[in-house]
């Protein structure tokens, strides 16, 4: 774009030249005839602004998720084959149905042991030669541990299917548990969480948020730990990894997804061959008291001294992932803050400029209620105002019926964006894996899209009234406690948490409804 100053330098010579040429031309013999009057036409109504209303609903594309063919190997391993023959590529995902929720009294063990399956070498391969073997197939061997699963994945051309399965089988069945690699891996994990505890406001906030959402009267809920702390990882031993592997990594606690240019029969035969020596039963699921939604407004302030910014969270518990209410809660979340058409973005960020980032989400879990989380990243001076805005939208969601256009935009987006996310074999494999992790039927995605398209504004209002209840939420703010304590006390008693001392409560500030919510800025923040 040309600046105004530059434009003036360009424009002046051009005008001068035009005037000079005009002086050289003889005057016209006679003035031109007046222009013809335009023919009157019926004027249309002024065009509606693009943001005033959505375009009319279109026809949602008719599409079905690829067929999933299931078979069970002799050792109990479930084999899920999805044929996609567009490219000669095969995606492999070996899924262990145990993630960080299986840590028990050893926080961090699932993540460390899962990564050690690869990092410590397996079968005939050392740590280095295992990676070299994967790269020689034009692939990489990856391990991902989340709350409910440990996923070991590879993507190869179809002519390397057998070799890739041999690598996955070695990692799952014959890990070496190399002591030196274990120490290096543990040190990297300690460095990771130590760094996050110092530098990430979101990380420290979530450590408290999940603890409080899944707080039990007695015992520890499997989902109450967002991550492990440095001292907990330091306490892990190599024998703990061996014990976790023996207990959790079994064929009856796993399934494998084979998606791409394969057929069910040959894929099943190859899996049967590669995993023939694997044995073991599914581990017992520990009995845990069900977590309950918050029954009051509880406010926690995680101190980050002198921080110029703050992370603000408001959370409660929603329906389980397997619930028939899932399409409705997803629609409600989309209306609230699932995208740029959501209320949080349009109001908190765009209209009032209270946050540089704001959204809401529903986090799926395999066992138990799913967290509903509203969040905002903002300047310290605006943290109180941002919290006030999040709470206002939280309350309004439970008290009002969405508009027709809000519901229409949300349901169309959720139905159609699903199609955009299944354009690769890898995406199809990931979605197939999710079905297994969350215990959903193979035709779920087709019924889900149909259910989403049929969600009504009254259904959203009815469900939201049960889950978004005024004065019942967990609030966590990560920021400078010296500045933020007083503004947050406007909403209720504030527990100030020390992140450097194991997230213990350092002090409690009394409720002060007269406290000023907005702070004066210091050096612009």
- Based on CA inertia axes, which overall geometry fits? globular
Secondary structure category: alpha+beta
The whole-angstrom Rg is 29 Å
Mean pLDDT across all amino acids? 90
Strand order of the biggest β-sheet: 9-10-8-11-7-12-13
Order of helices and strands: HEEEHHEEHHHHHEHEEHHEEHHHHHEHEE
The main β sheet shows up as: 7 strands, mixed
DSSP, total strands: 13
| Percent strand | 15-25%
The assembly state of the depicted protein chains is single chain
Count of separate DSSP helical elements:
17
Low-confidence stretches: 1-51
Helical percentage: 40-55%
Tell me the span between the first and last alpha carbons.
31 Å
Describe the structure in brief.
The protein is an alpha+beta fold. Helix content is 41%, strand content 17%.
Your description of this structure?
- The structure is a single chain.
- α10 crosses α15, α10 packs across α16 (457-467) and α13 runs antiparallel to α15.
- It is built from 17 helices and 13 strands.
- The strands form 2 sheets. The chain has a 7-stranded mixed beta sheet, sandwiched between helices.
- The protein has helices at residues 4-24, 109-119, 127-136, 161-173, 179-199, 201-213, 230-234, 238-248, 264-274, 326-337, 343-351, 383-399, 404-420, 425-438, 444-453, 457-467, 481-489; strands spanning 69-72, 78-83, 89-96, 142-145, 150-157, 254-260, 297-303, 309-320, 357-362, 369-379, 473-479, 494-498, 504-509.
- It is globular.
- It is α+β, with helices and mostly antiparallel strands and 525 residues long.
